[in-house]
Amino acid sequence: MKFFLSSVRRFFRVAGRSPMLALGSAFVFAASASAAVAGDLSTLKIGTATSPQIEALKIAAREAKDQGLDVKIIEFTDWNTPNAALANKDIDVNYFQHIPFLENAKKQGGYNFVAIAPGTIMKIGLYSKKVKRFDELKDGATVAIANDPVNGGRGLLLLQRAGLIKLKPGIDYRATTLDIVDNPKHLKIVQLEASQLARSLDDVDLAQGYPSFIKLAGTTDPNSALLFDGTENKIFAIQWVVRPDSVNDPRIRKFISIYQHSPAVRTALDKAFGNLYAVAW
Q1: If we measure between CA atoms, which residue out of 280, 238, 264, 4 comes closest to residue 99?
Q2: Whether 107 contacts 200, CB under 8 Å
Q3: pLDDT of residue 41
Q4: How far is CA 49 from CA 52, 95, 186, 195, 213, in A?
């Protein structure tokens, strides 16, 4: 941008002295502007939500730079903006959501997005700073789960696995609190934004938790969940998501390949998550 503005000023200074020089400057200015635009378009912009995943993405970006691909990692602090930014073409691809979350976002936001490759699968758990076992929960205990339709259902399924509630037979991750058919401890279930659950542990008796957010918040040991779900269900793998016109973008495909095959990326993921994740590719 600074170069662009300096070219404009130079053009008008020359124009005041000589029409011929002004014409030459105009050609230089046009060429410079075109080069600047081309440079902007060649930068691959990747959006993601705040998470320890960031370091692995930055490592892949540095390796991509060494291979001639310029990558900018853009970090968002919530789970709504990355999709809005993708729709607005502020970014080229986002990496933060699994298929159920994506399908719900498409339904609610009217987005036309495509998942083109899987990434990591992150465990979720039930955490508490008040009890060590589920049977220690008192009648009427407060339990926090995610407030979005997909992750909230995943939390309810985990509560059912813990034996704390029963849901309608055959219900899947789309379960809501209305699908609870038995709640013997009369648990008070509150719903919070998923990224805020880690910070609720001082205020509730039990909370659905994401190890990545638990680690960022520093509220407890990410490995200390009373119960984890598994990483075998690949429907919960984080996806690389693009607009339909970018499905075959070679820059995106190249970056994904670098991310998936880089030993340094795997080392960063191991350091960040230990055994709380798995790869889905």
Answers
A1: 238
A2: no
A3: 55
A4: 10, 8, 34, 10, 11
Cα separation values, 24 from 7, 18, 19, Å: 12, 10, 9
For the stretch 195-216, pLDDT in tens is 899 999 999 999 999 888 898 8
Model pLDDT, residue 52: 85
Burial class (CB in 10 A: 0-12, 13-18, 19+), 56: buried
Domain extent listing, the chain: 43-121+234-279, 125-228
In contact, 252 and 45? CB cutoff 8 Å: no
Question: What is the fold of 43-121+234-279?
Answer: D-Maltodextrin-Binding Protein; domain 2 (3.40.190)
Q: Are 57 and 255 in contact (CB under 8 A)?
A: no
Closest CA to 58 of 209, 237, 280, 262: 262
Yes or no: say if 237 and 95 are a contact pair by the CB < 8 Å rule: no
Chain Cα centroid distance, residue 111: 16
Domains 43-121+234-279 and 125-228 share a fold: yes
CA Rg value for the chain: 24
Give the E-state strand segments of the chain in sequence order: 44-49, 71-76, 93-97, 114-122, 125-127, 142-146, 166-167, 180-182, 188-192, 206-209, 227-228, 237-242, 277-279
Tens digit of pLDDT for each residue in 4-23?
Answer: 334 333 333 333 433 333 33
Question: Which residues make beta-bridge pairs with 144?
Answer: 190, 207
CATH match of 125-228 with 3.40.190.10: yes
Q: Coil, strand or helix: which one is 72? A: strand
Note the pTM of the prediction, 2 decimals.
0.74
pLDDT in tens, 164-178: 999 999 999 899 999
Helix/strand/coil for 123:
coil
- Cα–Cα distance measured from residue 280 to residue 233, given in angstroms and rounded to the nearest whole number: 9
**16 φ, ψ (degrees, to nearest 5):** -70, -15
